[in-house]
Amino acid sequence: MTLEARLHLPVAAALREIQAPVRERLERVPDEMWRIVQADVAIVEAANAHLRGMRGKLFRPTLLLLASSVEDAPEPRAVPLAAVAELVHLTSVVHDDSVDHSVLRRGQPTINALFSHQVAVLMGDFLFSKAIAELVRLGDMEPLRVFTQASNEMTVGELRQLASFDALSFTEQDYYTLIRAKTASLVGAACEMGALAGAPRFRANMRRFGERLGMAFQVADDLLDYTEQEAVTGKPSGNDLKEHKVTLPLIAGLPRMSRAARARVEALFADPTPGDAAIAEVVGIVGESGGLEFARRKGEQFAQEAEEALADLPQSDVKQSLADALAYVMDRRS
Predict the structure, then answer these.
(1) CB-based contacts of 322: which residues, under 8 Å, 6+ apart?
(2) pLDDT (tens digit, 0 to 9) for every residue of the chain, 334 residues total?
(3) Which phi-psi region, left, alpha or beta, contains residue 64 (left: φ > 0; alpha: ψ -120 to 50)?
(4) What pTM, to 2 d.p., does this model score?
(5) CA–CA gap between residue 151 and residue 287 (Å, rounded)
C-alpha cells in the first residue's frame, strides 16, 4: 500500500503494531535506562522515580531497534543504544520544560514543577552525562560521535529560537532549520545508530529516513495545536499561540492574510497573556488563509521523502513497520 493510501486510512497504524517485530527487545529498554542512570543520591533517585512514572511511547528506541533489524541481524548493543537514544530525548524534555516553565507533561508534574528549575537543569545534565558514559562503556566512537552531534544541534536550535526577538519575522526556512535541529537530528541519529548495530550498509538510508520522518513528525505535531479539540472547551488548544510560538501553519498563512487579519495576529502577539477568544480567532484566521492546508501538504512531502529512503531495504515485517511509522506520525491524534 502506498503512503498516500495509508494516510487516508480511518485510523493510523497503532504504535503497538509498529513495535511488534522488536517487542521483546523494546521491553528491555526501560530497565537499561534506569540501570544507566541509577545513583545513590536521594534527590536523583526521587527524580528518576518520577521520570519512570512518566514513561513515554519509546518512539525513538522503536525506530532504532527496527533499523538494527533491517537485515535480521541485530547486535546486542542495539538495546543499550536504544536506551541512550531515549535518555538523550528525556534530557531535552527535562530541559525544555524548565526553559518554558511548563508545569505539566503527559498530565503529570514536570521535574521543575515538582522540585525546582535548578534541579531540572542539573537533572537534565545528569541524564545526558550518564548517557554519554554508557556510549564510552560500549567502546565505539561512532555512536558517541553521532549522538553528541545530534545533542549539539538540538541545543543550538533551542538557542536560535530563544535569540529570535521578532516572532512574526520568523521565515519558512527558519522554521525548517529549527525543526531539523530540535527534532529531526535525534530521530535521524537513532535510525542511523540502529543501522550500525545490525545493518551497516543501510546507514545512509536510515539516516535519511529518520531525518525526514522527524521533520514530518514536528510538522504534524505543530498542526495538532491548531486542529486537536480539547475535551473541556471543544476548541483547539492553541498552546503555541498562547506562548507566542510561530510554527508552519502561521508562517504559511501570514502572507495570505488581509491587513485586518494580520492586525489581529499582531495584537495577539503583543498581548503577554492572550485569552481563549483571541487564540480561537487567530486559529480561524490561519485556517482561512490556507496555513493549515499548506502545513499538511509539507508534512506529507517530508513523509514521502522518508518513504523513498526505504526503497532499497529488503522486504520484511521490519520494513513494513518503518513504513507504518510514517502513517502513525502523520495521522496520530495526540
Answers:
(1) 63, 66, 67, 209, 310, 313
(2) 555 554 444 344 479 999 999 999 999 999 999 999 999 999 999 999 999 888 789 999 999 999 999 999 999 999 999 999 999 999 999 998 888 888 888 778 899 998 999 999 999 999 999 999 999 999 989 999 999 999 999 999 888 887 776 889 999 999 999 999 999 999 999 999 999 999 999 999 999 999 999 999 999 999 998 988 654 444 557 888 998 999 999 999 999 999 999 999 999 999 999 999 999 999 999 999 999 999 999 999 999 999 999 999 999 999 999 999 999 998 865 4
(3) alpha
(4) 0.92
(5) 34
- Rounded to 5 degrees, φ, ψ at 156 are -65, -40
Query: What grid cell was written down for 65?
Result: 531497534
Report H helices in the chain. 3-7, 15-18, 23-26, 29-37, 42-53, 59-68, 78-100, 111-114, 117-138, 141-162, 172-179, 185-196, 203-227, 239-242, 248-253, 259-270, 276-288, 291-308, 317-331
3-state SS class at 70: coil
Angle between helices 291-308 and 317-331 (to 10 degrees): 170
Cα–Cα distance for residue pair 146/88, rounded to 1 Å: 12
Cβ neighbour number for residue 81 with a 10 Å cutoff: 28
129-148 burial string, b = 16+ CB within 10 Å, else e? ebbbebbeebeeeebbebbb
Q: Write down all domains in the chain, each with its CATH number in brackets.
A: 3-331 (1.10.600.10)
User: 157-162 contacts: CB < 8 A, separation 24 or more?
Assistant: 157/181, 157/182, 157/185, 158/95, 158/96, 158/99, 158/182, 162/99
Residue pair 242/281 in contact by the 8 Å Cβ criterion: no
**Which is nearest to 91 in space by CA: 191, 158, 143, 140?**
158
